[in-house]
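Human: Respectfully, please carefully check these tokens:
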Amino acid sequence: MDEAKTWRARKQSVAPNPRRSAMTQVNRRTLLGFAGALAVAPPTFARPTAYPDPERELMVPVRGGQIYVRTNGPLDGPRPPLVVAHGGPGGNHGSYLELLPLINERGLILYDQLDSGRSDRPNDPANWTVDRFVDELEPIRAALGVPRWHVMGHSWGGTIALEYGARRPHALAGLCLASPLISTRSWLGDTNALRRMLPAEIQTELAACETPAPPPVDRCSAAEMEFLTRFGGRQPAPEALIAYLGLPGNRGFNPDLYRTMWGTTEFTATGTLKTYDGEPLLARLDGPRTLFLVGQYDEARPVTAALFAERVPEAEFAVVPGAAHSLHVDRPDEAVAVLRAWLRRQDRL
């Protein structure tokens, strides 16, 4: 869930691991047909060296402060826009600019949660609750005058999207849970299952890093990076993303928020989310309007996401081939193609 660590991981290219191909063999749900999705997509997009400027920027008042919002594409067209809740906790909207090819059909709304990115940073832990972060969505929609929208949440943002979807708001046209944190129990089960697939020496180093007398920080960081380069981000961070995150005002990752809500590593939860369990909320989702989307090598394992999707009648499930947790950066063309096709189907419901 720590996007800052994942972006650093993507600066290293990692060769595909053939042993992981079994993760796509999920037969409990019907996998979305990638051939069909790609057939309706426009030609492959070249990776830009810079992202287009926002067409609109605003600071939206929410409980605790003001949050940064940017939009591109039509918000009042025939197709409802897509809003994206970023990961973390403590990440920012930057990497989701890889979804900008969608704006030739609909608007794209990106925002930074309170105490993240360009938003206000009161750094008051009283604001760091799941409900308060979910409550940020409706003020954004109202400020933009959007009657209906699709909501996508990625990683920790998937928790926000899950909670929002469970409220069954009339404004919700479609819900995408991308590599989502559904429950801390399941998340830790996935990360530790993947950890056991690492080379023995890396597993030993990670175990040592969790003891009262750990090795030096650089050794522990290197060991965790071995995990992140396999299951966090498998491709280098694109030039446009690196440039964008370096712009004035992009304050980046908030480690205090991450530590307070989650902890210090992906493998152990010690913060306020340590007992989080959103699994009962799955029963409240509007199944035909729900998509579970993960990467082939995702930290949120496809086998787990498929089981969650099975608990939501008529929900769709898709795996982005070749991608890890940062599926929209690892394989942007494929991720956009799947989202485009799914959004079009939702528009017809």
About this structure: Confidence is low (pLDDT under 50) at residues 7-45.
